[in-house]
Each structure stands twice: as structure tokens, then as C-alpha cells.
């Protein structure tokens, strides 16, 4: 019987070496979502032991487009570290990933502790600032295919993130037009309203879900609210730029 710690080692090494692995549920069909979150926590503990520091949380499967794309229907979450934060306007090294994709998101930075069952007003009151962002997702499983426990164990596919300029917490991000371009050509067009109808609902969910794991959103944490559109695959030579109505833009280049 493979232990959760052993499974965490497998997932962590797949991420650090950018080598695809079989789905965990292929050999362990009874793997539960609860076990998967335990594997995720153990995997991230290995990263922290190597010197990575906590940076916040990511929410996943918060739009119908994302749910349809990966074939699941439950909101999930993962953890962010400082090593996952990429320099806005800089390069993304494709060889560090298995099959990376990018999606536009809204990012929040937390100004005061937030946990448990909170209202949208309480969540907003805990926000220090908001920003345009993009997340790099990269399932470490073969063919980008997985069941819900697989993706949760794999840190909910979170691999990196870009954050643009921070705006006031009072900035209305409920329904902003979003255009993602690759080499000047629009490849995804959507709205921030695709994130649970309003991105603040994702923050409400984050406070509730991480509390189940005995954690809370702390001052300084960045919370990625989830993809507003389907994710787009990345290959070397691309220049990716996403513009958010009245909020700004985020960009990066893909290199080999």
C-alpha cells in the first residue's frame, strides 16, 4: 500500500523535474478527495523544506469553461509559494513544465485575516488591493487527463502566476471585459463575471475551504480567484498579453 507521503513525493518530483506521471487514480481508484488534499499539503511541505515560502492560495474550476475543459464540477484550491511567482513582462521557460497553459484571473492581496464562513462584504473588507493576473497551470499527469483527486493532489495544477499593477480594493471587478492575445491575435475573450458570477465569491469560497484544512487567509497572501476563460496552451516563441477592462494588462514571453 503506497502511503500518502510516498504519493506526495511522486507528485513533487514530477513537478520539479517536469516529467509526466500516470494518474494516481489509475493504480488507486479509491483515492479520495480528502486524501488528495493531504497529499497536496505534504507535497508543498517538501517545497517549503527546500526554502520556498508561502505566497497564498489559488482557486480552481471557478468558471463553467474550466469545468467543461477538465471534465469536473467542483471548486478546488491549491497553495502558492514565492518560487511560483513569475516576473510580469519577463520570460516563461517552457522546458520547466510538462504541458503548460495560461488563463486570465483576478488576484486579491489580503490585508487582514479571513477565515471560515464569511459574507462577500466581509471578504471585501479583508482585501488590501486587487490586480489583473494570469496563472500558469500544468498538470503533471500524462495527456493532461485526470480525475478530481488527481488534480487536487497535484496542487490543483497550479505552477506559476503573474500579477500586474495593484489597484484599490474598492475597484469594481465584478464584470470586466478580458482579452487574452497571443502574438497580437485574440485567443480568449471573456469577462471576470465568469468567475462564479463575481470574483469576490471566489474569495468567500477560499476563506471557507482553506479553513477546513485548519488554515486561514493571512495578511500578505495573494489569492488567485480562478480562470475567467478556458486555458490556452503555451509553446516557445509566443508573446502573451491579457488586457482587463479598466484594470490594466499582464504580459510575458515564452522561451524554450
Automatic annotation (TrEMBL):
Q: Which InterPro entries match?
A: Fumarylacetoacetase-like_C, Fumarylacetoacetase_C_sf, Hydratase-Decarb/MhpD_sf
Identify the Gene3D superfamilies for this entry.
Fumarylacetoacetase-like, C-terminal domain (3.90.850.10)
Source organism, top-level taxon: Bacteria
Name a GO molecular-function annotation. 2-oxopent-4-enoate hydratase activity
Checking Pfam families in the record gives:
FAA_hydrolase
What are the GO cellular component annotations? cytoplasm
**Acetylation among the record's keywords?**
no
Known EC number(s)?
Answer: 4.1.1.77
Give every Fumarylacetoacetase-like C-terminal domain span.
90-254
Q: What is this protein called?
A: 4-oxalocrotonate decarboxylase
Naturally occurring in which organism (per UniProt): Methylocella tundrae
Its encoding gene is what?
amnE
Amino acid at each position: 500500500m503506497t502511503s500518502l507521503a510516498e504519493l506526495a513525493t511522486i507528485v513533487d518530483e514530477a513537478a520539479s523535474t517536469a516529467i509526466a506521471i500516470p494518474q494516481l487514480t489509475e493504480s488507486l481508484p479509491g483515492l479520495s478527495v480528502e486524501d488528495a488534499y493531504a497529499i497536496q499539503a505534504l507535497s508543498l511541505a517538501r517545497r517549503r523544506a527546500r526554502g520556498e515560502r508561502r505566497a497564498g492560495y489559488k482557486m480552481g474550476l471557478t468558471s463553467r469553461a474550466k469545468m467543461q475543459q477538465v471534465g469536473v464540477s467542483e471548486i478546488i484550491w491549491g497553495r502558492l509559494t514565492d518560487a511560483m511567482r513569475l516576473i510580469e513582462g519577463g520570460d516563461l521557460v517552457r522546458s520547466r513544465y510538462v504541458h503548460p497553459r495560461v488563463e486570465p484571473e483576478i488576484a486579491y492581496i489580503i490585508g487582514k485575516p479571513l477565515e471560515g464562513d464569511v459574507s462577500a462584504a466581509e471578504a471585501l473588507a479583508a482585501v488590501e488591493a486587487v490586480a489583473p493576473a494570469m496563472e500558469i497551470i500544468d498538470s503533471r499527469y500524462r495527456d493532461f487527463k485526470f480525475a478530481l483527486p488527481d488534480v487536487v493532489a497535484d496542487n490543483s495544477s497550479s505552477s506559476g502566476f503573474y500579477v500586474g499593477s495593484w489597484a484599490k480594493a474598492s475597484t469594481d471587478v465584478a464584470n470586466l471585459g478580458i482579452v487574452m492575445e497571443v502574438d497580437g491575435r485574440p485567443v480568449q475573450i471573456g469577462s471576470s463575471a465568469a468567475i462564479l458570477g463575481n470574483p469576490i465569491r471566489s474569495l468567500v469560497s477560499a476563506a471557507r475551504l482553506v479553513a477546513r484544512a485548519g488554515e486561514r487567509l493571512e495578511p500578505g497572501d495573494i489569492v488567485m480567484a480562478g480562470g475567467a476563460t478556458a486555458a490556452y496552451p503555451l509553446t516557445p516563441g509566443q508573446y502573451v498579453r491579457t488586457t482587463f477592462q479598466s484594470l490594466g494588462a499582464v504580459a510575458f514571453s515564452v522561451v524554450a
